[in-house]
Amino acid sequence: MYDALQRRLAFHGAAVILLGLLAGFPYALVVTGDLAGSERAWRMAHMEGVTNGLLIFGVAAVAPVLRLGAGARRALVACLLFTAWANTVASVIGAATGNRGLALAAPPANALVFVLFSAAIVTVFAVVGLVMQGGRRGAE
């Protein structure tokens, strides 16, 4: 049961890291002045992918010792994958379009970045809560 879960998380962790690594190319081009754009935004896009992918790897590593029922495990995986992909995709869209997503406002790319980041805030708290629940002594 945990082998399949860990393989799924390993795949998505690597895929999210790959997207973050790919975002490193425009970041480098912006740093060298060969591409117009925000250095801060592309650095964030690069690091969001790497950091969120590592979060997935970390949860995959501890998954076998977490005491969670089947439903809680499914919720953990769904929230974790949504968090990682939403954060990474939102940061890439934000960097590519010049939108920070600080408010639910036009243009549509800005609204999308805002919605993805806002939803990821909720789901990352669910991830942390579920890992804490599954990891506490005597958890069932």
Q: Please report the total strand number as a whole number.
A: 0
Biggest sheet features: none
Q: SSE string, helix = H, strand = E? A: HHHH
Radius of gyration: 17 Å
User: What does the overall shape look like?
Assistant: elongated
Poorly predicted sequence stretches spanning 5 or more consecutive residues: none
The number of distinct structural domains comes to 1
Secondary structure category? mainly alpha
Spatial gap, N to C terminus: 17 Å
Number of helices: 4
Strand content: under 5%
Overview of this structure, please?
With 140 residues, the chain is mainly α. The protein has one domain (2-135). It has 4 helices and no strands. Helix 2 packs antiparallel against helix 3 (70-97). It is elongated. The model has no long low-confidence stretch (mean pLDDT 96).
Keywords:
140 residues; mainly alpha
Write the layout of secondary structure elements.
Layout: H1 2-32, H2 39-62, H3 70-97, H4 108-135
